[in-house]
Structures are given as C-alpha cells and as structure tokens.
Write a structure and sequence with these properties.
Layout (H helix, E strand, L loop, with lengths): L5 E7 L3 E7 L5 E8 L5 H16 L6 E7 L2 H7 L6 E6 L5 H4 L26 E4 L2 E2 L5 E3 L3 H14 L4 E5 L8 H13 L4 E4 H4 L5 H31 L6 E4 L5 E3 H4 L9 H16 L5 E6 L4 E7 L2 E2 L1 E2 L2 E3 L2 E3 L3 E2 L1 E4 L5 E5 L5 E7 L18 H7 L16 H16 L3 H25 L9 E5 L3 H12 L3 E4 L6 H8 L2 E12 L5 H21 L8 E10 L6 E6 L6 H17 L8 E12 L21 E6 L6 E8 L8 E3 L2 E5 L2 E5 L4 E4 L5 E4 L6
Helix pairs in contact: 2-7, 4-5, 9-14, 10-11, 10-12, 11-12, 12-13
C-alpha cells in the first residue's frame, strides 16, 4: 500500500516511453505510451508523466514516489559519449586494457575490430604507479605517493581527464593502496571523479575488474548530470517525490546510492520488464516463465524459475565482460523498428540495425524510408493504422512502398510474401534467443509458459512458441507497459560482494559467516541512506563456487543465516547446481569458493496491482473484422477483431483473431485457443496442448 499518494513507474526505451500510475490503494490508475525523444530522453519522460496524470485525473503534487528505468548509461557506452577517462594501474600492468582476454570471435578476419573497450582511454592515459600487493593481500611494493601525484598531474593537466579509475593488482584482497590513492587525488585535485576497482568489483581477474570499473567512471558524470537535470525538471513540473532508479539486478535504489556506482544501471531497462513478468506470472499460477519483451529496437528474453528471475555475475554488454549482478537477459536486434534488407548474397535479413523512434519505420511518415517489422505488420493487416500505440497514425502506403522497393522487387516476390518473410525471420531469431536462455542453462523450454510483452511481443509470440514447442502463452492485461509496471513492483535492493578464495576442505563456516555479516552491514548502511528501516528488509547470502581447475563458477544460496554446516551445505548445493546446468556432477572432485555476496531486499508495498475479477456471465460485444494475411497461399481473409478491454473473464475463443488495446496488439494464430483468466490475462493454448 502507498497511503500517502501516487506511485509512478517510468520506463524509457529507444522508441517509446511507458508510464504506469498506481493509486494509494494499489489499483492501476493509468498506463500509457509516449514517443521517446532522443537525445533528450527527459523531455519524453516528462511528456509521458503529464499524459498519464491527465489520463488518471490527478495532479503532479499527488505523486509521492517515482521509479525510473533509464537507458542513459547504456546509450552513453553505445554512443561513446562518456567522460574523458584516465587509468592508474600497477606499474608494469598499464596494458591490461588493450591486451584484454586475447579473444578473437572471428579468428580469420584480419580487419576485425578490437573487442576490448579501447574507447575508454588510449594508452597515453593508462599510467603505471609503483605499488604491489600479493595475491594474499600483503604489501610487496609500498605505494609511491610522489610518483602517483606526478601521474595524476599528467592525466589532469596534460590530458584533461574528467575522471580517474584506479585499478591496482590484487586490490580486491587488500584495497589499502587504492583508498590512499583516492585520498591523495581528492586532496590535490578536488572535484575530480574517482572510481576504485576494489569497490566496484572486489574480485580477481584484472581485465574484467578494469572494464567494469572503467565503465563506472565513464558513465558517472553523465548519469549524475542526467539525474540532477531530471530532478530539477520534475520539480519544475510540480513533482516533488523522491526518485528511485532501477538497477541491472532487478532492484531499485535512491539517487544518493546510485551515483556512487552508476554502472549498475547499464542494463536497467531490461530488468524492469522481467520483474513485472515474474510478479504477474506467479500471481496467475505460472511461476516458471520465459519472458519475451519485444519493443521497438530489440527483443529481450529471460528465464524465470519458481517466480524468481535468474541473476548472473557473468554477464556482458556487447562483447565486453560486465561482471556485476544482473538479471540474465539475452538481447537481440529484433524489434518493431528493426530494418529488413537484402544482403549481397540475395538473402533477406532483419536487424540488428533499427530505425528507432527517429525517423522510425517508414509507416510513421517521419522521414524513414527503410522497411521494418512494423511496416510488415501493417501491410499484413495486423495493425490498425488509426489506433497504434503511442498515438501515431500509421501510413500503410509508405510501408508498402518501402517493402516493395527494398525487399519485394530485389527478391522477385510480392509485397505480401516479402512481409511474411520479414516476420518469419524475426520470429526465428527470437526463437533462437529463447532456446539459448533456457537450454543453455539446462532447462527445457517446453516446461515453461511464454509471457510476451512490449509493444510488439504479443503480436509475434504465437509463432515463436510454435517454433520452440512451448504449449502456453500468458499475455498480460497491459503488455505494452509491463516494464513500467515492473518498476512499481520492484523491491529496493542492495548488494555487496567480496573475494573469498578457499577450497571447501579448508574453509570453515565461521569465516563464511564473518565475511557475510560484514557484507550485510554494508547493505544495511545503503538501506539507511534510502530511508529504509532494517526491520523492513530480508537478507540472503550467496557463494560463487567451482570445481578446482575450472575457469567458470556457479552461484548458490547460503540462506539468510549461516549455520555451522554452511560449508557442507554450500558444497551439496553446488553439486546439484552443476548437474542442473551441465548434466554432470563429481562429488569426489575438490570444490573451491571464489566469492561471496550478500543482499538486502525491501519488498514493494503489498499492492493489488493484479487483482482477481469475478467471472462475468455477460457476453462480450460482437467483434469487428479486418482482412489479415497469415499465409501467402491463403491470402487476405476476414478475421475477428476484438477490443480487449471488452472481453470479460472466462471468455473463450479460437484463432485467428486480433485483440486491440491502446498499448499493444495481440494476434491469436490459427489453431490456438484463447481465454481470459480471472486476472484479466489472456491465456493462449497451442494446439498440441489440447491433444
């Protein structure tokens, strides 16, 4: 409950900004989409909030909590527009960044671009400092403060850096030299942004630690300026509520905590939808889900097990390792604005290039000339040009012309055949991503329910499910704004981690408990900054473990309170997790700990956002019809079109059919049986389910 006022969730995407307004009693007051406004995304955000409050009939002064899913850090890295960085590294290790992992994804491409983020800083801004810690944290070479200050002066005065990232060898074990470096930098260069690798990623593997710390320093000034500017513009618009921001691991935090480690927002936008899908699915009785978020620019696939999204510490961003806790999401360039083109080999390809929101698909009439998935959907009759999400009036003739010129004529086929081909390819791409997120982790996708959302997800999900053998789909009541709803449902969450290298035979439960207790105190301190009382939170500890000799580890839960059998319990859970993931376990092999992690979570208010509705005996209005093309051989056929809001719980119907609503369009394919459940979800059963 939120007894004081309104809660507003805002998810800013590359094409649309989604806004969700929750009443004090937990009820949904408004959900709407507004076009995003790159590069000034705050303008679209403010417009979306104003439109949603107008729809709800409420004023800005009634908002008491605002949660934001942001792409600022993501776009900063993608567009190479971050701060001018300098690196301070252990003397003799200044080339960690260009050496990287020695990984070549295209072994025989002599012109392959580097997969290391060299844009963070050229070699002249990566300087060595005499100092050295051993792998056990013992001082081998004391910190040379005179040399340090000389290197810092060179970076600041000669290179004009805005921020310095400090990444010393083995600082994750003993951070004393990094902390002293910060003290000296703050004393001699006040106002300079400083990032310590021992605070961002306190774990071994220097290159990975350097990259994550580098990204943190790279985005910090930009994220801070954005949040400060957004807070000012919100106050000017009458919104005085505190601002919380979604993090990559699926929790939110206040701005004061966020600006200390903004790299945690790099995958902020992806996590919100997964949290919303997990909450909605659990409420509807489907705790095991695969979520499919198909928006304007990309499609994001995540696996949810027992009502909880999978969280990984081995994530990545593009080709760059991003070893921070994050909801495990596989992203591909398959969205409504993904561009279709014929390559040099006369093969049709869809994505990853996107028309985005500006100029957008050809049918937007905003200058776009390249055909997209949205153009194909419009040509095939799937979309209503007068009621498209976001209030954009679509122009079918522009869509048809773009597909004809770029795809149909080069391939010698009709426009309809080309549009069907665009859909077939984008659906196959999403099915491939879905298999990877499930089968790669040892799960059979046929054991899960597919929950599609985003503006385009419910339109394409039926074919994706068929390709993967999935038997059921669950389409939320407001699929187009589920990410914004996920922000409202997300908990306040803080995490802390530490390296812990020990074989299970040598580890002891008391040592584990001591380290976890210290990490828990760090989490509680951050909760206090957010104004959260410790009694409102729950705690959990995790251990990363592996068989001795392995290069990859798995994370297992240690529970809230560690017992005297914590080491043995962790070892047993690791064997089980290894068998689940790799279909193999070896209880005779030696196991070792790699790192420990603690979390503190304050659940969201117990709001009935997904309230059960009594089954109605009333008949829904008779559907309208529209000509749709689902197969080239059948051509266009009259198909029922329902207004989704008019369908009562308990209503059942068979495909083909279209369901329209302001934020999205759902296509029920032939052979699929749909019904409205007591929560307003649309449950779609594929034909093989009913055999």
């Amino acid at each position: 409950m939120n007894p004081q006022g309104l809660t507003v969730g805002i998810d800013v995407g590359g094409t649309f900004t989604d806004v969700f307004v929750q009443a004090p009693d937990g009820a949904l007051l408004a959900a709407c989409k507004a076009p995003s406004t790159p590069p000034d995304f705050a303008a679209g955000l403010l417009h979306g909030v104003a439109a949603a409050l107008l729809q709800a009939g409420r004023g800005a002064e009634e908002v008491t909590r605002l949660i934001h899913g942001t792409t600022v850090a993501t776009n900063c890295i993608l567009t190479r527009s971050g701060a001018r960085l300098g690196f301070l590294l252990t003397e003799g290790f200044r080339d960690i960044l260009p050496i990287g992992l020695g990984w070549r994804p295209r072994m025989y491409d002599l012109d392959m671009d580097p997969v290391e983020p060299l844009f963070l800083a050229p070699r002249r801004r990566c300087l060595g400092v005499p100092e050295r810690m051993s792998v056990r944290g013992q001082v081998v070479v004391p910190l040379d403060e005179t040399a340090l200050l000389a290197a810092a002066a060179r970076l600041v005065e000669d290179e004009g850096v805005e921020a310095i990232v400090v990444c010393y060898l083995h600082a994750y074990v003993n951070p004393a030299h990094e902390r002293r470096t910060r003290e000296l930098l703050e004393e001699h260069h006040p106002g300079l942004s400083v990032t310590l690798s021992s605070e961002v990623l306190p774990r071994p593997r220097e290159y990975r630690r350097l990259v994550v710390s580098g990204f943190d320093g790279y985005v910090k000034p930009i994220v801070n300026r954005y949040l400060e500017g957004l807070a000012t513009r919100l106050r000017e618009a009458g919104v005085q509520a505190p601002l919380h921001v979604m993090q990559s691991h699926g929790g939110v935090c206040g701005v004061k905590n966020l600006i200390e480690r903004p790299v945690g927002t790099v995958l902020s936008g992806l996590a919100a939808g997964v949290i919303g899908a997990a909450s909605l699915g659990a409420k509807a009785g489907f705790p095991d889900l695969i979520s499919l978020d198909m928006g304007g620019t990309s499609a994001d696939v995540a696996l949810i097990r027992n009502g909880r999204p999978l969280v990984t510490n081995e994530g990545s961003f593009e080709h760059y390792p991003l070893n921070i806790p994050m909801v495990e999401v596989r992203t591909i360039g398959a969205g409504g604005s993904s561009i279709a083109k014929v390559d040099a080999g006369d093969a049709l390809r869809v994505g990853p290039d996107s028309a985005g929101a500006d100029p957008g698909p050809a049918c937007y009439g905003q200058g776009g000339t390249q055909p997209t998935v949205t153009d194909a959907s419009l040509v095939l009759g799937y979309l209503n040009p007068e009621t498209f999400a976001g209030g954009i009036v679509l122009q079918p003739e522009r869509a048809r012309s773009a597909i004809d010129e770029a795809v149909a004529k080069p391939l010698g086929m009709s426009v309809e055949q080309a549009a069907l081909g665009i859909h077939a390819i984008v659906n196959a791409n999403m099915a491939g991503a879905l298999r990877l997120i499930s089968i790669k982790r040892g799960y059979d996708p046929r054991d899960f329910v597919l929950l599609p959302f985003g503006g385009a997800g419910p339109l394409n999900a039926g074919r994706v499910a068929e390709a993967c053998g999935i038997r059921r789909l669950l389409v939320p009541p407001a699929p187009g704004v589920l990410s914004a709803m996920g922000l409202v449902l997300a908990p306040i969450r803080h995490e802390a981690s530490a390296a812990y290298s020990a074989r299970a035979n040598d580890a002891n439960s008391a040592a584990l408990a001591s380290i976890c207790a210290d990490l828990d105190r760090q989490c509680l301190a951050r909760m206090a900054v957010d104004g959260v009382d410790a009694t409102e939170t729950t705690a959990e500890c995790f251990a990363e473990m592996r068989y001795v000799g392995q290069s990859h580890q798995l994370e297992v839960s240690l529970g809230e309170r560690l017992t005297s059998d914590a080491v043995q319990d962790a070892e047993a859970r690791f064997h089980a997790a290894h068998e689940q993931t790799y279909n193999h376990r070896n209880e005779a092999a030696a196991v070792e700990f790699v790192a420990l992690r603690a979390t503190r979570v304050r659940p969201p208010p117990d709001a009935e956002l997904i309230a059960e509705v009594a089954v109605s005996e009333a008949s829904p209005p008779a559907p309208q019809t529209r000509r749709l093309c689902l197969a080239a051989a059948e051509g266009f056929q009259e198909t029922p079109v329902y207004e989704r809001a008019a369908l009562p719980p308990g209503f059942r119907f068979s495909g083909p059919a279209i369901l329209e609503q302001p934020d999205s369009t759902t296509l029920v394919y032939p052979g699929h049986l749909a019904s409205v459940d007591p929560f307003g979800n649309l449950l779609i059963e594929l034909e093989q389910t009913r055999r």
